[in-house]
Amino acid sequence: LNTGDWTFRTIDNSPPTITFTPANLQEGVSLSFEASVTDNELVSPTGTKIWYRKIGSPNATFTSADFTNTSGAGNLTTRNFNITVNPSWYDAMGLEFYIEAEDGSGNKGR
């Protein structure tokens, strides 16, 4: 039996958690969506996206746009993000979307 040092590495399988409160869309008006991302490791200031399409276009593919980090620099396990939703993203029926965040291990949360 070798009495040398042992090194163990824990594999991160936990995706980030996204907290989001939807806003009411008003036809022809831009509005801000805000989201908070929390993870068991440091949350990147990039890598949080919204995927969207018009509800009246169910066969359309989703388009992505990047959220902007509003938490500043530094090593954080929770970050706040925002994005401006443009009126061209939705129609009279509304907006179909999901938010996705990816951590440093490649785990994605929605």
Helices, strands, pairings?
Blueprint: E1 17-20, E2 31-38, E3 48-54, E4 63-66, E5 68-69, E6 78-85, E7 95-102, E8 108-109
Explain what this protein looks like in three dimensions.
It is a single chain. This protein has strands at 17-20, 31-38, 48-54, 63-66, 68-69, 78-85, 95-102, 108-109. A hairpin with an 8-residue loop joins strand 3 and strand 4. With 110 residues, the chain is mainly beta. The mean pLDDT is 90. It has no helices and eight strands. A four-stranded antiparallel beta sheet has the order 1-2-6-5, with no helix packed on it. A four-stranded antiparallel beta sheet has the order 4-3-7-8, with no helix packed on it.
